[in-house]
């Protein structure tokens, strides 16, 4: 029987204190990895508290690491902190993301830029810094979205960013292949995490009509796909976007 064993490996999950990030942290940790739980250092300390709560539940082989993915210096320090603590970096999951939904007619410049800076440029920053420090044979998994493929109404910023993440994934899979570092993306459908629950109920009902399985995804179902891509079972998979959307986009 094949099993996933990440013992001896170190993973960094951005935006790992809640939602899909927290679930991914839990999955990687359960498979044996040591996991750095990244959080955005907000002034109130709310995100750090949630990250510390996650780490306290997991116990050994988990630690918090602050850092704003929009900031180059922050990202470099974040990756250096992980390597200093564990002497290695094997897995990176780019999960940090925000929503600022609005039609293009009403969208402000800051609403566009905030999403691009976090969801797209942040992925670039982390991939670049991680690639410099990552062990040969490492794994990078970027969280894309069905929105980056089909384009959702009112998400010109989010859809553009996630489409860009898919493009980054394709390019880096070629650039990093000589070091046997695989780079893949996961494109979830709608998952009712805290971010997903901001979708108005009437829109949720319309979305459900388009999903053959007749339900939204669970965070665990998405993190299982991430876990697979981080494992030796996916050693010949790179440059791919794995869709996990209940058949919505097949």
Topology diagram in text:
Blueprint: E1 10-13, H1 19-30, E2 34-39, H2 46-58, E3 62-66, H3 72-86, E4 91-94, H4 109-133, E5 139-143, H5 147-150, H6 156-175, E6 182-188, H7 201-208, H8 219-230, E7 241-244
Parallel strand pairs: 1-2, 1-4, 2-3, 4-5, 5-6, 6-7
Main traits of this protein?
250 residues; alpha/beta; Rossmann fold; seven-stranded parallel beta sheet; 14% strand
Distance between the termini: 29 Å
| Biggest sheet details | 7 strands, parallel
The overall pLDDT, averaged over residues, is: 95
> In terms of structural class, how would the helical and strand content be classed?
alpha/beta
* CATH fold field value: Rossmann fold
How many β strands by DSSP? 7
Number of helices: 8
Largest sheet, spatial ordering of strands: 3-2-1-4-5-6-7
pLDDT < 50 stretches: none
CATH architecture: 3-Layer(aba) Sandwich
Q: Write down the domain tally.
A: 1
User: What value does the Rg take, in angstroms?
Assistant: 17 Å
CATH level-4 homologous superfamily: NAD(P)-binding Rossmann-like Domain
Q: For the record, what CATH class applies? A: Alpha Beta
Q: Classify the helix fraction into a percent range.
A: 40-55%
Shape: globular
How much strand?
A: 5-15%
């Amino acid at each position: 029987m094949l099993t996933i064993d990440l013992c001896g490996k170190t993973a960094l999950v951005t935006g790992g204190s809640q939602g899909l990030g927290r679930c991914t942290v839990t999955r990687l940790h359960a498979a044996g990895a040591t996991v750095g739980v990244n959080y955005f250092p907000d002034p109130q300390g709310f995100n750090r508290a949630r990250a510390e709560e996650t780490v306290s539940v997991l116990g050994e082989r988990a630690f918090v690491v602050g850092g704003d993915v929009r900031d180059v210096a922050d990202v470099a320090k974040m990756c250096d902190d992980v390597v200093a603590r564990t002497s290695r970096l094997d897995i990176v999951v780019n999960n940090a993301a925000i929503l600022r939904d609005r039609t293009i007619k009403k969208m402000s410049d800051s609403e566009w830029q905030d999403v691009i800076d976090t969801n797209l440029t942040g992925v670039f920053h982390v991939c670049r810094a991680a690639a410099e420090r990552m062990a040969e044979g490492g794994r990078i998994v970027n969280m894309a979205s069905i929105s980056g493929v089909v384009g959702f109404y009112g998400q010109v910023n989010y859809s553009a960013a996630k489409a860009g993440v898919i493009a980054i994934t394709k390019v880096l899979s070629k650039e990093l292949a000589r070091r046997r570092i695989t780079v893949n993306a996961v494109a979830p459908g709608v998952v009712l995490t805290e971010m997903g629950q901001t979708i108005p109920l009437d829109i949720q009902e319309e979305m459900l009509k388009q999903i053959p399985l007749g339900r939204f995804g669970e965070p665990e179902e998405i993190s299982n796909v991430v876990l697979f891509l981080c494992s030796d079972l996916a050693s010949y998979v790179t440059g791919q976007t794995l869709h996990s959307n209940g058949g919505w986009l097949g």
